[in-house]
Structure formats: C-alpha cells, structure tokens
Specification:
By secondary structure, the chain is mainly alpha-helical. It is 74% helix and 0% strand. The chain is built from ten helices and no strands.
C-alpha cells in the first residue's frame, strides 16, 4: 500500500469512527486539543496525525491503533508492510510513554523524600513547625514535572500543572505567614483568582490556534515563497 493510499485509509477510518461516536469535527478537535481544520485534513487524507495522537484517537474511539490503520474492506489476514511498520512504531511509542511515567513518578518520590529529609533534620535539632517543608514540596513537585514534560515537548498537562504550582506556592506562603508570623492572611488566596484566570485564557488562546496548525502554516508559507 502506498503512503497516499494509507493516508486516505486512516482518514476514512477516523471519519467513520467519529460519526459512530456522534461527534462533529469540532467536537473531536476539542477533545484532542487540535483545530477542526486539522481533523478535516486527516479525514480528507491530506495529512495524518502523529503517533501519540493516533494513540489518543484510539482511546477516544475505544479501538486499537491497528483498527485506525486497517482496511475495512480487506480480509482480516490482509495486512500490508506499512500497517505492520506503523504498529511497531506505536508499540515502541507506548513503551517510551510508560518509561516516561515511571520517570515522572520517581522524580515526584524524590521531591517528597527531600521534603521528608528536611523535616527529619529540622525536627531532630528541635526546630518547631519543621513540617512546613511538606507544603513547599507541592510547588516544587509541579516544577519538576513541568520541566520534564517540557523537555519531552509534551505540553498537554501543563495547564493544571501550572495551576497546581501557583496554588501550591500561595498555600505555602499562607502557611509560613500563618505559622511563623501568627497572622491569618487568608486574603493572599485572592491573588490566585486573577492568576487562575490568566492561566485559563493563556491556554485557551493556544487551544484556539494549536502549535500543530501554526507549524503547518509556516511550512506552507515557506513553500509559497519558494
């Protein structure tokens, strides 16, 4: 099977499964954080989603990635070399994704171990309220996870991670002021309201014009200049 034929086959499968789910192109785009133009290009066979998006599509439609690649009119045993190669890539990608989850979990454990170590040391030398170190672990853990995901160019969870970072930092500051200065400065949480609104608007802007579409537009502009 040629590359063009595979593109049309994948596009036809996406369109068929989308309609079975009762989703519009805009509805599917919202779930995947893409634009409806990208969904339309996939279904017309003009482009194909990347491997991680294929995995996300399979989960959304409750099918396997092989189902997205398969020729619905072919006999079950008729699988081409391109489909087999794509399946192998998907399996390797899923393994790497699992490895990344382990790295994230280990990094989080390390952050909380450091917080526990600080608590044990401070408590051992008689410093009161040393348990405040655990509150600092909340924003610190968010920073570590954001850094890892950014290094992997995986920005899908950054919205809630940045929210955790902001609220964790505010909570830590509140607890320190409350315990050390013995003042109830609850109004500090009001700072999180405009902060959270700014985060929602920022990510809403990129959801409206995803990076994938911006890159496609830049590539098309460069081709036009040539």
């Amino acid at each position: 099977m040629t590359d063009e034929a595979l593109k049309y086959q994948i596009g036809a499968n996406i369109a068929l499964l989308r309609k079975k789910q009762g989703l519009t192109q805009a509805g599917l785009a919202e779930k995947l954080n893409y634009s409806d133009k990208a969904i339309s290009k996939w279904e017309r066979g003009e482009s194909v989603p990347d491997v991680m998006t294929m995995v996300a599509l399979a989960r959304e439609f409750d099918v396997t990635v092989d189902d997205l690649l398969a020729d619905q009119d072919a006999l079950p045993a008729q699988t081409g070399p391109v489909q087999n190669a794509m399946s192998q890539v998907v399996q390797k990608t899923l393994k790497r994704k699992a490895d990344k989850r382990i790295i994230v979990c280990l990094s989080s454990v390390l952050v909380w171990f450091v917080a526990l170590l600080i608590y044990v040391i401070l408590a051992s030398i008689g410093i009161t309220k040393s348990w405040l170190s655990f509150f600092l672990a909340i924003p610190a853990n968010a920073v570590v996870i954001i850094s890892l995901r950014s290094a992997w160019r995986d920005f899908r969870s950054n919205q809630w991670l940045i929210s955790v970072l902001m609220w964790g930092a505010i909570l830590s500051l509140f607890m320190f002021l409350l315990m050390l200065l013995e003042r109830n400065v609850w109004r500090i949480f009001l700072l999180g309201v405009p902060g959270q609104l700014a985060i929602l608007l920022w990510f809403r802007m990129f959801r409206t014009a995803p990076v994938h579409e911006v890159e496609d537009g830049q590539e098309n502009a460069e081709k036009a200049d040539l």
